[in-house]
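INFO  loader      accepted 1 record
INFO  loader      residues=280
INFO  predictor   begin
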Amino acid sequence: MIPHTEIEAIHSRNGRTYWVDAGDKLYKQRLSVGQYQRANWLFAQQHIQKFRRCLDIGSNNACNAIHYAERFSHVECWEPTQLAQRLWHLTVRDNDVKNVTLHTQALAETAKTTEIVIHWKNGGHNHLENKDRRVWSGKRWRDRTSRPRQRQTQTVECVTLDSYHFEDVDFVKIDVEGYEWFVLQGAEQTIQAHKPIIQLEIVASQCRKFGYWAEDMIDWLRARGYRCRSKKRGWLDGSFVSYRNQLQHEGVHQKGDMDLFFIPQDAHTQQLDPRLKLFG
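INFO  predictor   done
INFO  writer      dumping tokens
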């Protein structure tokens, strides 16, 4: 059940309305001045060749979905938490967006029932339960010691992306607080069939929280014909390694470069708009 939560509409400078948890100061501040992750969306559009179907996995309050919908024929969104679903519907309604669909399951590597851990006043940090995942001891992976949760959880149903059998998938954005690799594993057939551009949030500490290294996920995509690209550093074809809480490429960590883009090796890449230098 959703506890009593105050919500409010943010009337942004860009003319859009975004609904948020009234206590979420981070989202309120960011959305008041415009689209959340606008630089990522500008960058992604330089690589997307067709704008048929977009998959927004970890859609939150539809703060990106309503902008994706301006270009794509249809946007499929996933958000399993009850509060975020409420915010999503209000944001879509108040911006009069019609070509979007909300799916209320979570995406995973297999169909199952699990829990999602709720971060009130910071819904962007909600994440699926990780108590069944390995933990890094500093020297090796080991089984996780079971401890009572301090945060509230919500029971959610998980399905694979492949179970939807979507056609014409051109762009996939995944931001699920460390569960990205498992979403990818459940999307392998979709990825192989359509070769979409993929925007992936990769935070080394979040990956480790779910029992894998960030570079494992990158190697998985490379093995399926993808190259990695950063909006700040260009093509990243060298070695990645997780070091403490950092993901390093060729021994260098780029602060603030959490979202990386994966482009099929045979895809045509457009000349990047010089305006993107403003976001470097």
